[in-house]
């Protein structure tokens, strides 16, 4: 559970805002079929991180008009902050509902 959330935050930080989806996907594929709780956490983290990774990627593409840097950095910060908050909630045994997220994967 924690790998999906904290790994998403770490992926956003280390990947410049575009790799936050990687750890939740790995958690989903590795343990998603074994536990409905792990699957719920991994899917929530994956959906959130996918959205903000795409937004960060668009921001990096738009750096040629300067506003893209702000968009990418904001998306990166949102992915990191909410990934950490979700990891702390998961550590307490709660399923965290990410704000500003969509359901790409169910």
TrEMBL record:
Chief location category: membrane
tRNA-binding in keyword set: no
Ranges that cross the membrane: 6-30, 42-61, 67-88
Highest taxon of source: Bacteria
UniProt keyword terms in alphabetical order: Membrane, Transmembrane, Transmembrane helix
Keyword Lyase listed: no
Localization, UniProt: Membrane
Pfam family, one: MamF_MmsF
Topological type in the membrane: Multi-pass membrane protein
Protein name: DUF4870 domain-containing protein
